[in-house]
Amino acid sequence: xxxxxxxxxxxxxxxxxxxxxxxxxxxxxxxxxxxxxxxxxxxxxxxxxxxxxxxxxxxxxxxxxxxxxxxxxxxxxxxxxxxxxxxxxxxxxxxxxxxxxxxxxxxxxxxxxxxxxxxxxxxxxxxxxxxxxxxxxxxxxxxxxxxxxxxxxxxxxxxxxxxxxxxxxxxxxxxxxxxxxxxxxxxxxxxxxxxxxxxxxxxxxxxxxxxx
Length: 212
Known about the structure:
Blueprint: H1 5-31, H2 38-45, H3 49-56, H4 59-71, H5 74-84, H6 89-117, H7 122-150, H8 156-167, H9 171-178, H10 183-202
């Protein structure tokens, strides 16, 4: 049965919006946020420039929409649910590392565009700080699981700093994008190094290996 006129218009609007967002993502990644124009996005999406403004509010609206999709990806929830089920510190780090890898594989292009744009665009910088705070809270959840397993709450800040160093916005990308590592190798290396660093922090407060 054909869609009624209102339904057809809504379907076309959704399709146009999706095309515009996809076009913006591709162009931002290929040539940068500031070099990309609304006219180029419209041309690649097959719509009029006015449609870009009407559906997303222009370039900044498009970038914010991509940030929202990145920061709410189900990979975050899945990783944290996995962390909650872990019974060894090594497994907590493996879940966190795998989650970082999945997010980077899916949204690495958007992350790099946003981090590159933020220093020159105050509104984007403010949004990045919000995302960073949310991600730090996610990493902190992993830290709290580690401290539950080791009963060492007094080293909370140090363990959080270690995990941020290895699993923050930069480390995985540096290995995979800049140094050409494959994702599996990067994830395994980050887990090994982070585990050693966490063991160093806990060395004065625990006995035996954290992998035992």
